[in-house]
Amino acid sequence: MEYEAVIGLEVHVQLNTKSKMFCSCGADYQSAEPNTRVCPVCMALPGVLPVVNIAAVESAIKIGLALNCSISEITKFDRKNYPYPDLMKGYQISQFDMPICNEGWMDIKPEGEPDAHIGITRVHMEEDVARLTHIEKPLTTPGGKSAHSHTLMDINRAGVPLMEVVSEPDIHSAAQAEAYILKLQNIIRYLGVGTANMEEGSFRVDANVSVRPVGSDELRERVEVKNMNRVRAVVRAIEHEIKRQPEVWESGGRVEMETRGWDDVAGVTIVQRSKEEAHDYRYFPEPDIPPLEIDPRWVEEITASLPEFADVRQARFEDEYDLSEYDAALLTASRATADYFEATVGVRDLSGEERAAFAKESANWVNGELARLLNAPEGPSEINDTKVKPEGLASLVAMFQARTISNAAAREVLEEMWSSGANPDSVVADRGLLKVSGTDELLPVVQEVIDNNPNAVEDFVGGKETAVRFLVGQVMKATRGRADAGVAAELLTRTLEEVKAAR
Q1: Which sign, positive or negative, has the C-alpha torsion 97, 85, 31, 373?
Q2: Neighbours of 424 (CB within 10 A)
Q3: Which stretches of 218-326 are assigned E, i.e. beta strand?
Q4: What letter does residue 388 receive in the DSSP assignment?
Q5: For residues 109 and 315, is the Cβ–Cβ distance under 8 A?
Q6: What is the pLDDT of residue 216?
Q7: CA geometry: angle 354, 190, 330, nearest 5 deg
Q8: For residue 312, what are the contacts with CB-CB under 8 A and spacing of at least 6?
């Protein structure tokens, strides 16, 4: 029997607000000493009252709008009860039946598969939990007892704002899941509301996976896979479940509804516990936080402030600057890179074909040499942190486009701009990098090269016209790459023809 995968993703997005979700403690837990970003609210001491972080609410609205959701005019918080050791209060303040964002969608372009339309069930707000570190080594407790393992708790993360984005079970392959995750990460970064880095725990994905016979519309028992800290891990875990579950059904067994963890080394999912349902959490309205009324005028203001997202910007770059799909996709993968590119193109007041040509050359340098420097281990990772400013790159591109400097010279200039922030015109002047293209300047060099390479001259006279390429290389070497190769080839050919005719 042929099976179809049915996948829904739950993505927790950590927001980069300055303070926590329900108190004024700093949310910069990763750079802080353990247990230094705490207060009575974080620690769930008796009698404390939570206060909603308005910046977190605004970020949630932005995410919802970017995912084409409707924004609730009234939203409320609920208590989600479960007895985990990293949950300070014994419950989590979350949202259940009245989330802030409802019924959205996202269009994706999975690699090697047709485009897909994925529904978004909801986006809701909640708080993060404390951080547990499990240590496997002998420990002597204050009471004198020994233990072979122990767990440390850091409360700094408790209360940091989270958004949970829940998709409909519209995903049917690992490739679709990957495209969905990557696009959601891109949206979060374009909005500037979070880093969306899985490796640091600010973007966590849980995958609900089931299979059913192809052609069926039933929803069979699903498993929820957790403990995936990279996009590749999510893909591998889904692929494993898509293979494992049909084998269970075909053997006469039944897939149990359970939570499974992903073992990245073994490449398998492992049972953790039976899967909870909503009633297991005993949701009830948070009595200390009244329902929030969201003014539609505020939503309109937030809507007007949203950026142009990557897919729309990519299409515009292809149309407006006549860029290839590949180049436009690279430029718009990061909002900072796209902004940098447009700032570079905007330095020169060009229009029509001249503007398109300059944009293409600028894209080549941003996606090529500048990207190479950015990806170097010792370099900054963000384009805005470099010493190469858009104005400087525009000047360099203009010189290279006019062929007043060679490709090798342009790379040399960029290296100096990268290290010192120098003006490209000054670097070219100080190092004498302007291209030599005048006949009066090049002809003596050409004659010297011909005199110093009699074997190549004989090859040309004997009919080997490819000897000219070797001699052009010698001219370039003699001028330290400053000679115009086309002019040099023309002068060499003309002079060699004269030698040949004289024989």
Answers
A1: negative
A2: 25
A3: 223-226, 258-263, 268-274, 284-285, 292-293
A4: -
A5: no
A6: 87
A7: 45
A8: none
pLDDT tens digits for range 293-325: 999 999 999 999 999 999 999 999 999 999 999
Cα torsion angle, 95, 96, 97, 102, sign: positive
d(CA 223, CA 262): 12
Confidence (pLDDT) at 280: 76
Residue ranges in 108-228 assigned as alpha helix (H): 174-191
Q: What angle do CA 398, 401, 404 make, to 5 degrees?
A: 85
Distance, in Å, from the CA atom of 15 to the CA atom of 498, rounded to the nearest integer, reads 74
For residue 421, the SS3 value is coil
- Give the per-residue pLDDT at 72: 96
Amino acid identity of residue 159, one-letter, is G
Task: Assess contact for 441 and 482: CB atoms under 8 A.
Answer: no
pLDDT at 436: 65
Q: Which CATH number describes the domain made up of 439-502? A: 1.10.10.410
Amino acid at 466: T
CA neighbor of 75 nearest in space, from 303, 297, 302, 290: 290
Q: How much is the pLDDT for 403?
A: 82
pLDDT of residue 275: 63
How far is Cα 191 from Cα 203, in angstroms, rounded to an integer? 15
Q: What is the pLDDT of residue 318?
A: 96
The residue length of the chain stands at: 503
What is the token pair recorded at 107? 């269009």
pLDDT value for 503:
66
Q: What is the pLDDT of residue 178?
A: 97
Question: What distances in angstroms separate CA 71 from CA 60, 102, 367, one per listed residue?
Answer: 10, 7, 38
Query: Where in the chain are the domains?
Result: 3-279, 308-431, 439-502
Predicted local distance difference test score (pLDDT) of residue 448: 86
Q: Which residues of the chain register pLDDT less than 50?
A: none
What does residue 32 show for φ and ψ, rounded to 5 degrees? -100, 155
Q: What's the pLDDT score for residue 146?
A: 64
Distance CA 168, CA 171 (A): 8
pLDDT tens, residue by residue, 84-120: 788 888 899 999 999 999 999 999 999 999 999 999 9
Coil, strand or helix at 117: strand
Dist CA 207 CA 167 (whole Å): 10
Whole-angstrom distance, CA of residue 328 vs CA of residue 305: 23
Structure tokens at 153: 């708790």
Residue with tokens 């053997």: 251
The 10 Å CB-count burial string (b at 16+, else e) for 463-472 is eeeebbebbb
Distance, CA of 399 to CA of 389 (rounded, Å): 16
